[in-house]
Structure formats: C-alpha cells, structure tokens
Amino acid sequence: MKTWLKTHRGTLVFVLCFGIFRTAIADWNPIPSGSMRPTILEGDVVFVNRLAYAIKVPLTDIELTALSEPQRGDIVTFSSPKDGTRLIKRIVALPGDTVAMQGGVLLINGVAAQYSQQTILPELVARDLNMPAMRATESVAGTQRTVQFLPDVNAKRDFGPIQIAADHYFMLGDNRDNSEDSRFIGSVPRHLLIGRTSRLLVSADILANWMPRLERFGQTLN
After folding, report:
1. What's the pTM?
2. Could you tell me where the DSSP H helices lie in 78-153?
3. 7-30 b/e with 16+ CB inside 10 Å = b?
4. What gap in Å lies between CA 35 and CA 179, rounded to an integer?
5. Which end of the chain, C or N, has fewer beta carbons within 10 A?
6. In this predicted model, what pLDDT tens digit does every residue of 142-172 receive, in sequence order?
7. Which neighbouring-strand residues pair with 51?
8. Which stretch of 35-39, 65-69, 122-126, 213-217 has the lowest confidence by average pLDDT?
9. How far apart are CA 87 and CA 40, in angstroms?
C-alpha cells in the first residue's frame, strides 16, 4: 500500500486539488431542463463562480466569510431547500422585499413589472414537440431580462404577496410556466447558494441531434 501511494502520490495530489477547486472555487454545471429558457437551453454547460458570494468549507454549506451580497437579477445555482437537488434560477427578490404574481405579472414591493417586445413563436418543449410560446422583455426593480410564457400550460401564475425573510432569496425560472422554483420550493436561504453564473462554456443540442451549438460557446448570460 505504501509503495502504491508513493507511486501514485502525484495523481492523488492532483485529484485532491481538482476536487477542492470544483467544490470551493469554480465549477461547471450541465443544464438538463428548460426552466431557464430562453436564457439558458437544455444542453448548455454554464460556468459557476463559487466565490461570488462567500468562501465555504469544501464539500459543505458552511460559510467561512462573506465576499459579496447576491443581487436581484443574478443567475445562481443552489441546493433546493425541498430536497437538496441542484437547481439554477434567477434571483428576483431580496431579503426584506415583498414579492407577488398576478396573472403572470411579477410585482416587487408593489410595483408591477413591464413587459415589452412581446413575440409569439414555436417553442420546442420535448423531442419533436412544439407549442406556442410568448417571449417578452421583463423590466422591474431596476432589472431586465427576457422571459417566456407558455399560454397552453396550466401553470402557477398567481401567488403572494410574500415578504422575504432575512438571508433568504426568491428564485424564478425565466421560463415561467415550466419551472419548479420558489413558487413551489419556497425562498432559498443564503447558505444553500452555490455560486453565480454569467457565462456559458459549451453547448450541444441534446433535444435533437447532439450537435454542438458553436454560436453559444463562451456566450455571456444576461
């Protein structure tokens, strides 16, 4: 055993350092679902900055020191408070905010979002299955992004108002009618945030032919 360890110590050190890097500094996250469409597609691989908000003990949710505060509009990966599944969504409400939704319209602190540049287009929701989708630019509380609605889907378009507790964040998927987010799992405590993503690494069309989507390589996320 000692001989084996001596022979392979270089490899073991590399694996250990690589593991620490992925669990404490930076990571990548393949996207299997369409909950963040049209911003992030199935088959995208996003870069995750694990040092965006805090330094944590590797392989744990224990925060050693805070580095910055999560901001409204950030796209983050986090562990679901419901079952621990790793999810990726957008922060729409911060601690102390009051958030609600009425008929699909998002309200932050009583101010309704504005929806502009609305377009209807076919949306691929599964292999060989399309349905009409409405995309729009959502503007609220100083943030802006493209969101998507699926009019033919019976979704949760009304809730609240809910006041967000201290050190908690309310998450929504950009694909509002196809996302298991804080409407279903509740607000997310800070210690469950894994990191922030603002860039794609690579992408492949996993719903069709698995061909690489070269135009998405390295793309910045809004």
Report:
1. 0.87
2. none
3. eeeeeeeeeeeeeeeebbeebebe
4. 5
5. N
6. 999 999 999 888 899 999 999 999 999 999 9
7. none
8. 122-126
9. 13
Lowest mean pLDDT among 24-28, 84-88, 160-164, 202-206: 24-28
The two three-digit tokens of residue 176, written as one number: 């509002």
In contact, 72 and 92? CB cutoff 8 Å: yes
Give dist(CA 161, CA 141) in Å, integer.
Answer: 16
| CA 13/CA 52 separation, integer angstroms | 26
3-state helix, strand, coil in the chain (%, to 5): 15, 45, 40
Q: How far apart are CA 209 and CA 144, in angstroms?
A: 32
Preceding omega of 161 cis (within 30 degrees of 0): yes
* C-alpha 163 chain-centroid distance: 21
**Alpha-carbon separation of residue 125 from 39, 81, 90, 122 (angstroms):** 15, 26, 20, 9
DSSP single-letter state for residue 204: B
Q: Which helix H or strand E contains 17, and what residues bound it? A: helix 9-24
CB 184 within 8 A of CB 162: no
Q: Provide CB contacts within 8 A for 102, sequence distance 6+.
A: 112, 157, 158
Spatial distance between the Cα atoms of 138 and 173, rounded to a whole number of angstroms: 13
Query: DSSP letter at 221?
Result: P
